[in-house]
Amino acid sequence: MGFKYYISLLPLLFIALTMGAQDNAVTFEANLSKEKLGINERLRIEFTMNRDGDDFSPPDFDGFRVISGPLQAISSSWVNGVRSYSKTYSYTLAPTGRGKFTIKQASIVIDGKVYKSLAKTVEVTAAVEKPNDDMTVDDYADNNLHLVAEVSKTNPYLNEEISVVYKLYVSPSIRVSNYRPLDNPKYNNFWSQDIPVQRLNTENGTYKGKAYRYVVLKRVVLFPQKSGKLDIEPLSLDVTVDVPTNKRDFFGGRIYSQTNKTVSAGNRTINVKALPTAGKPTDFGGAVGEFDFSVTTSKTHLNASESLQAIVEVRGKGNLKLFQLPTPELPSSLEVYDPEHNENVRTTLSGMQGKVSDSYTIVPSFKGKYPVPSISFSYFNPKSETYHTINSEEIMINVIEGPANSSGTMANNPINSKQRVVTTGNQFNFIKLNPELTAKNSDYFFSSKYFYLWWLLPLALIPLAIIFRKKREAIASDVEGNKIKKANKLARKYLSEAKKTLGKKDAFYIALEKALHNYLKAKLKIETSEFSKDKIASLLTEKEVEVETKEGFIGLLKNCEMARYSPFSDVQMHQDYDKASEVISNLDKQL
């Protein structure tokens, strides 16, 4: 530890001294109880400093009469080794006439230096019905606490994103100690997604021209699913508020009174415009935003019986989760499997951004060249208020090795074209014209070995009947096993019903929820009355089910509940159906 060590500490010492100097910066401010009041009301003005000073000089209160003051209050405390100090001179004033008045600067000497407050402007109006001297704590809280729903756009197009931000504005003269939601909006006729608020940060802002502090409580992105006037229900909160009184404690500090207030962000009406019919493409599927479109394949040269992937993809910004992708028309000689739907979408206050795609697995059976024809994708751009159509490039798939297509069918026949019947060479064999039929003796059977075998067959079946009877008794005695089989049968039945009702939101999610419930009833051996998401989550945890599988199951149940109040697209229903099959399969492996 030499001279160089101490030299290295100098920057840290400089930073510490700088931060300490910033923490101890002198402030001297003037604060008004209100900037607009009736001539029959009282005005309170406070001059506050964070360091002790001398020679306080108040301003001339032109247009006002001093009722009381100056009252002096001092507050000093130590928190984690940091000292907090406040000294206040306060006055209560009564206006002497109507009009706009300026309260000029006050001054104070702190550490030999003169500091001055900013001038304040006050408007005095005609007498009010209820002067502030008669206002209750609830009245004061009502005037200084506001919950506001800020909507990004009030006249969007159908399926165009809008955002709603709920802000709680609090006047500096009151304090909020707690709040809890009373009623959350349900957003009927909107597709909605919450944007979680990670931290409640207090920021400075203005409300109706006055200085306030505010905190963002809730953020949500909405996509209107219906044109016309749509209402956004209000968000209601129960807020605990500390309101200052005119009383002081022994040390001169302000005494606060606590009250509970219910505040609501009022109903907002959104006027949703229908998409224009002029210029609408025939293949338009409801995509609204700004997109790019492409069709690609994982390979273009392969052998028969090998597989490739054809990917239909849309990228950009808009309602990416709320429309279906176009389907490619592939040659009938290619074996095509149902597509796998993939989403990589990020939802923020500005809407959805990312990409969605359908991946088709294709297996050619014969040698040849197979074109993947160009397909089109159309969308509506709300900024330019026009429709756009993008056409993909034609792709040629070259199957190098494999059997020839003996049917003579052209490789580029569409999937719905008729094909010739493929012959194998032995359909038309020669039929013998002289069968040389002879009559057989009808008594031959009764003297044959088959006759005696038929007599002995019942005796041979007796042991099998005994074994079958014992098996049935064992199955009948297995009550728990029968319950599981019955519930599994019901689960398969309801999942089948859900598949039949794809596209019909209410019927689909009712059937899906029944399937999930009956499946778990069989696996966990619990009664339907015991079903709740918390109960299910705890039981799956006890059974050591993987977290991802458990969350997937609970997520499906939540979607079934949300579907009663929110619109769900066909794409979402297909995803939930596929997710249910995957979750049930994973649970079978883990339970």
UniProtKB/TrEMBL annotation:
UniProt KW Translocase keyword: no
Name under which the protein is recorded: Protein BatD
Signal sequence annotation: 1-21
TM region positions: 450-468
Pfam families assigned: BatD (PF13584)
Protein keywords: Membrane, Signal, Transmembrane, Transmembrane helix
InterPro entries (alphabetical): BatD
Alphabetical list of PANTHER family matching this protein: BATD, PROTEIN BATD-RELATED
